[in-house]
Amino acid sequence: MHFAGVDIGSTMTKVVLIDETDNLLSAIKGPTGPEHRQLANRVMAQALEQASLKIDDVDFIVATGYGRVNVPFADRQLTELSCHARGVFSLFPDARTVIDIGGQDAKCMKIDNGRLIDFVMNDKCAAGTGRFLEVTAAALGIRLEDMGEISMRATTQVQISSLCTVFAQQEVAALLSRGEAMENIIAGIHNALAIRIGALAQRLRIEPRVVVTGGGAKNTGMVQAMKNKLDCDVSVPEEPLITGALGAAVLAREVYSKTAGEHGKPSTGPRRLEQATFFSEERP
Amino acid sequence: MSWFMGIDLGSAYTKGVLLKDSEIVGSHVITSGADYRASADAVTIELTGRANLKLEDVLRIVATGSGADSVSFAGQKAGDIVCTARGIHSIFPKARTVIDVGSLSTRVIRVGAEGTVTNFAVSEKCAAGGGRFIEVIANILRVDLVDFGPLAARSKSPIEFGTGCAVFGESEAITRVSEGVPKEDIAAGVNRALASKVSSLVSKIRLEEPCAICGGGAHSATLIQTIEGELNVGLLIPTNPQLVTALGAAVTARTSATEETARGHT
Question: Residues A74, A23: contact at Cβ < 8 Å?
Fold first, then answer.
């Protein structure tokens, strides 16, 4: 049997396919699509291809993430919070705190045996999300994925005084033109974001093991800054972007087995591998 | 005859006003850019040059604004809230409240009969709380700042932004454009969002009429109308709204120099 989790984020779509014993068959990430955000079906098609499966071979599909509402090929929608919690639990069974640094939001979750106990979230202000890194990297003229490595050479941290991302963008450009070293500015950026996310996380009582996920976890400098700020060690999954999709796939398997046991095979959707649409409830 | 200068070094624009005794004889506005010192120098050179003065002919220079520390040649610094109040008082002596829509923040100041500050409320240093939000969205819509107001004025159904953050607002505007929402509805939505920020600041300090508006945001007649509608009051608008705080700094220069001279004579 085969199960799929589809995590449609604001910028990236992630798809994970597993079998009935949670073995990973494929994990693919690709852009959600910058404007129309309708490329999720292509990511799904790639994942199926990698696992040599057809969409009809998949017994149950769970969609999660920001764009989960209108996925024509999903059987069930679950919140990204439950999916993240479940995905992290599969990788780190002793995890108690999950900090997810996404492109459009940051979340901190307290979990116990894979179940969500409490959470705090910021999706109001870009300054406490991965977007802060994207915008400031662009202002410095470097690639987002190079930030971590460059910051490793920092000899000191430049203080970034602007909280607002728009003003920080201006500030880092000015710092660079004033001759501050690139690596020290980036270390300052990581520190500034770690302060914001740390403050969010500390509203829940942080307990080890702490796992950091999301795009922010791919940045080694950012992870180091989080360690310093939280004053504890943190774990990072090998592929920190797919925990939500993995959780969705595992939950797909659990929902399927539970329903299958009680009522026979659960009903599935029409399985059209078509574009997922955003905001269709507002503008048909 | 004495000369006084006020320099208001803001996050987006550097403004200078030159006074000959009580008369405004020159003013200049440039973008602040990354190098605040150079902007302060450029404004000063322009103002003194036009009046055929040397820097030392200016009896007192007062610097204000978020970059005031970069004006190394200023004899004195003054708070921008105090300067805005003094500036508006010298233009509209009866004004009891002034709304300053700047790039970095929006401020609502209660002004006493003598031009003193009696109370104030300031937005967080957040681009969504000031004129910068207009710049960010104008850039996305590919509209010049001067055309933004007239564009917004044509809107029949302004959008409502689902976020209080300029960066997320930028993404929202992009999505809306791609969905085919008319540009004017997005522009009008920005004005609405700013007007509602102003309204929440006003509610903290209670507005007393007459109320004036200044700052770069007051260049937009449409934004002013939106704020007037939100607050349900008519606003006094200076001819050069962006120069009010620099004028207040120049007035401060004159007042303190005169007071010191008077004290020296007694």
Answer: no
ipTM: 0.76
Taking only residues 122 to 151 of chain A, the set having a beta carbon closer than 8 angstroms to any beta carbon of chain B reads 123-127, 131, 135
pLDDT in tens, B35-58: 889 999 999 999 999 999 999 999
Q: How many residues does chain A have?
A: 284
Residue-number span of the structural domain to which A165 is assigned: 94-235
Give A-chain residues touching B171 at CB under 8 angstroms: 10, 104
Among A126, A131, A167, whose Cβ lies nearest the Cβ of B11?
A: A167
Nearest CA in chain B to A277: B179
Cis peptide before A240 (omega within 30 of 0): no
Q: Tell me: pLDDT of A283 over 50.
A: no
Same domain, B70 and B110: no
Q: What is the mean pLDDT of residues A72-77?
A: 87
Mean pLDDT of chain B: 92
Which of A220-229, B103-112, B121-130 has the weakest average pLDDT?
Answer: B121-130
DSSP A25-85: EEEEEEE--SSS---HHHHHHHHHHHTT--GGG-SEEEEESTT-TT-TT-SEE--HHHHHH
The reported pTM is 0.80
**Do residues A20 and A123 share a domain?**
no
Mean pLDDT of chain A, nearest integer: 88
Q: Residue A147: enclosing H or E segment and its boundaries?
A: helix A147-151
The answer to whether residues B163 and B263 belong to one domain is no
Joined tokens for residue B125? 């240093």
Mutation target among B13, B132, B167, B186 for the A interface, most CBs of A within 10 A: B167
Say which residue, A40 or A246, is predicted with more confidence: A246
CB A119 within 8 A of CB A110: yes
Q: Which of A163-172, A255-264, B213-222, B236-245 has the lowest mean pLDDT?
A: A255-264
Confidence of residue B151 (pLDDT cuts 50, 70, 90): very high
B125 shares a domain with B208: yes
Contact A223, A217 (CB under 8 A): yes
Q: For residue B123, which residues of chain A lie inside 8 Å, CB to CB?
A: none
Identify whether residues A175 and A229 lie together within a single domain: yes
Q: Are residues A64 and A126 in the same domain?
A: no
Distance between alpha carbon A58 and the CA centroid of its chain, in Å? 24
Does A154 score more than 90 pLDDT? Answer: yes
pLDDT of residue A274: 66
Contact A89, A95 (CB under 8 A): yes
CA distance B87 to chain A (A): 26
**Whether the predicted pLDDT of A280 surpasses 60:** no
Range of the domain at B36: 1-80+240-266
Tell if the CB–CB gap between B34 and A173 is shorter than 8 Å: yes
Q: How far apart (Å, rounded) are the C-alpha atoms in residues A212 and A189?
A: 18
